[in-house]
C-alpha cells in the first residue's frame, strides 16, 4: 500500500471516529437502583443488553465515602446500590425498570431475602425528572398488574450521592462464582422471586409494552 493511500485511510478513519464518538457520548446515561445485596443486582444488570458498566456502591446517606462495615452496621443512612451506565440508543430506562422490579421483593421493608437491615432495603434513585416520572409510572403499573395495591414499599428518591464500594465487591459474581452461587441459593432469592413474578423472575417484567 502506498504512503498516499495510507494517508487517505488514516484521514478517513480519524473523520469516522470524530463523528461516532460524540453521538455515542450523547446517548450514555446513568441509573441507580437498590435491591438488597449489590452482588445480585450487579449480576442481573450485567445481563441487560445496552448496559455498558455496573458499579456496586452505597447510595445517599450522610457519611462521605463509607466502608462496607460502616454501612452494614447501620447509622450511616446508606443502602447498598448499583449504579448502571447504559446506552440509550440500545436500551431504555423503561427496560431497566422492568429488570429492576423482576429482581427484587418490593413488599419487604426490612431488607431483601436473607439480608436484613435498612442498608439492604430497595429503592430507585432518579438522576432526572424524566427518570422520576417513569419510575413512578412503573411502580403504579406493577401494583395494578400484580395486585399489590397496598404492599409496595420501594421508595423513589433523588440520587444525592453515590460512593463506589470496595474493589473486592465489584463483579463479585464473576470473581467468586462458587461462593456467590451458594450465597444466592442459601438466601432463597430465586424461590421468592419466582413466587412473586413467575417465569419472569430475575429477568424482566412487562410494564412498558409500548416501548418494547
Give the helix tally. 8
Count of domain modules: 1
Q: What is the CATH C level class, in words?
A: Alpha Beta
Give the strand tally. 8
What's the topology here?
Layout: H1 3-27, E1 28-35, H2 38-46, E2 51-60, H3 68-73, E3 78-87, H4 93-101, E4 111-112, E5 115-116, E6 122-126, H5 129-145, E7 156-158, E8 162-164, H6 172-175, H7 177-187, H8 189-197
Parallel strand pairs: 6-7
Antiparallel strand pairs: 1-3, 1-6, 2-3, 2-8, 4-5
Helix pairs in contact: 4-5
Explain the overall architecture.
The chain has 212 residues and is α+β, with helices and mostly antiparallel strands. The chain has one domain (27-211): Peptide methionine sulphoxide reductase MsrA (Peptide Methionine Sulfoxide Reductase, Chain A, 2-Layer Sandwich), CATH 3.30.1060. It has 8 helices and 8 strands. Strand 4 and strand 5 (115-116) form a beta hairpin. It has helices at residues 3-27, 38-46, 68-73, 93-101, 129-145, 172-175, 177-187, 189-197, and strands at residues 28-35, 51-60, 78-87, 111-112, 115-116, 122-126, 156-158, 162-164. The protein has a 6-stranded mixed β-sheet. Strands 4-5 form a two-stranded antiparallel ribbon. Helix 4 crosses helix 5 (129-145). Its EC number is 1.8.4.11. Residues 30-181 form the Peptide methionine sulphoxide reductase MsrA domain. Residues 1-25 form the signal peptide.
